Amino acid sequence: xxxxxxxxxxxxxxxxxxxxxxxxxxxxxxxxxxxxxxxxxxxxxxxxxxxxxxxxxxxxxxxx
Length: 64
Fold this sequence. Notes:
By secondary structure, the chain is an all-alpha fold. It is built from 3 helices and no strands. It has helices at 13-37, 40-49, 52-55. Helix 1 packs antiparallel against helix 2. It starts with 12 loop residues before the first helix and ends in a 9-residue tail after the last helix.
């Protein structure tokens, strides 16, 4: 079993897509915080990993 609670129950493929999009958005937020809090090579590395542009490609993603 997972060591954490899911933000909502997953009952079908559409729910799974929504969950994947939600997780991607949360990871994007963490990377954005990392980019803001660093400088130099570390900032460049964090920016390169930032997931924010990818979240718009998930079918279940909310688009900001």
